[in-house]
Amino acid sequence: MEIIQSLHTAILVTDLEHAEHFYGNILGLTKVERPMKFPGVWYQVGNYQLHLIVAPSVSKEPKHEKWGRNPHIAFSVADLDSAKELLTNHNYPIQNSASGRAAIFTQDPDGNVIELSQIIG
Q1: pLDDT of 58-79, one tens digit each?
Q2: Do residues 38 and 54 lie in contact, with contact meaning Cβ atoms separated by under 8 Å?
Q3: What number of other Cβ atoms are within 10 A of residue 105's Cβ?
Q4: pTM for the predicted model, two decimal places
Q5: Whole-number Å distance between alpha carbons of 51 and 39
Q6: CA 112 to CA 67: how far, in whole Å?
Q7: CATH architecture of 67-117
Q8: Topology of domain 8-54, CATH
């Protein structure tokens, strides 16, 4: 078997309206058509998609105190300082990467961990 590329990641959310605000307005992801009948939303990120699926409940707290050691989705951002400011202004939690690299972790309204890294090079 040869894996060619990652197509999408599906995560569970309990409140689609709050999730859409976070992923669409705060993170600025582009919503795309989805051919499914069950509740959810799809976002396009380059050649990759993020699928939000509505569930009755989701574990709200990361299991490990260092959020990067929990299951998470990682996105590259152009300006990490601007991302931090935006998240802080909207009262989303932030944890700096324990590695010391240019990365932070936040949580969506359901506690799903999101990594934002600035690739410098």
Answers
A1: 877 778 888 888 889 999 999 9
A2: yes
A3: 23
A4: 0.87
A5: 11
A6: 10
A7: Roll (3.10)
A8: 2,3-Dihydroxybiphenyl 1,2-Dioxygenase; domain 1 (3.10.180)
